[in-house]
Amino acid sequence: MANDLVMGLGWFVRRTLKDQFTLADFYERTFGMRTLRPPAPPPRNNKMLWAGDIAMFELSSRVPSADGEAMIGDVIPVLRAREFDAVRDMVRATGAPVVEESPGTPRYAQFKDPDGFFIAIAESPAGSPYPSDRMAEVHRTKPDIVLPGVAQPGPGVQDIASIIVKVVDPVAMGNFYADALGIDHFLPPTPQGAVLGLGRTTSLTLRPGGTKRAVPADRATVPDVWIARVLDIKTMTARLKSKGVTVINEMTIAGGTLTYAVDPEGHLFGMQQRSPELYQPGAPLRLEDQAIWALK
């Protein structure tokens, strides 16, 4: 589970050098993700999809960088497939290349989307030892996040089950995230991997096989980044800085405040707080914020 400041996975941002709106259509058609709202007028360049529970899947444009293409595959979102066979077959039917497939329990399949990014699906088996899976099982029939006019993802995909980050040292990086964010290990970390709770229905999975990365100049050069929704970003940012964590960006957007930082191996992650007091006076409150604030 997460601490009392980390609510859960709030956003997964995928930045492409190609057409982000075409890529968003792929995720809508293939996985049943729902458009949260129409894209804002130019120069805004992103599209927001609802990925179940409190998470959004954002498709945006990327600033080219020397290391950007090499970083594709460092971070992989894993969708919880309640109808695994049907979802796997639908992805295959699009022509998306199969990168990895495991027939074990839970079953797992990893693909490349049309722009070359990695996306995976996994079952959430009964009796899972992970609190995130148990909460997802409860929410499968009784979701506590319901947005008027926006259907839950489906029919085969429920939400984002896990974020995989490929690292050099899973033990060191597992201990880093536990300490820096105050989140818990689900299992003791080993050189073969680590699993931590990001809160609610999502876990953070660290796999060996990654590469140390140069610290990015800006978050917009990084292809994929996961962002935790937090309740007190000032406290969380101060926590990171007190531990010597490199902060890349601190920014305020409509209704929210963001901090982007890197782990000791150079992998980018983010935190965002969205609160009523951060909205401009008279500005309409977003549906997802209204629903999530009701949880607290």
CATH domain topology: 2,3-Dihydroxybiphenyl 1,2-Dioxygenase, domain 1
Percentage of residues in strands = 25-35%
Question: Please, how many domains?
Answer: 1
Give the % helix. Answer: 10-25%
The Rg value, from CA coordinates, equals 18 Å
Shape, please? Answer: globular
CATH-defined architecture: Roll
Strand order of the largest sheet: 2-3-4-1-12-15-14-13
List how many beta strands DSSP finds: 15
CATH class label: Alpha Beta
Low-confidence blocks of residues: none
Strand count, sense and barrel status of the largest sheet are: 8 strands, mixed
N-to-C series of helices and strands:
EHEEEHEHEEEHEHEEEHEEEH
Kindly report how far apart the N and C termini lie. 16 Å
CATH-assigned homologous superfamily = 2,3-Dihydroxybiphenyl 1,2-Dioxygenase, domain 1
What's the mean pLDDT score? 93
Total number of helices: 7
SS class: alpha+beta
Description:
The protein is an alpha+beta fold. The protein has one domain (6-293): 2,3-Dihydroxybiphenyl 1,2-Dioxygenase, domain 1, CATH 3.10.180. The protein is 22% helix and 33% strand. It has seven helices and 15 strands. It has helices at 20-31, 68-71, 84-93, 131-141, 170-181, 233-242, 287-293, and strands at 6-16, 34-37, 47-50, 56-61, 75-81, 98-102, 108-112, 118-122, 157-167, 194-197, 203-208, 224-230, 246-253, 256-262, 268-274. Strands 2-3-4-1-12-15-14-13 form an eight-stranded mixed beta sheet. It is globular. The mean pLDDT is 93.
Quick description:
This protein is an alpha+beta fold.
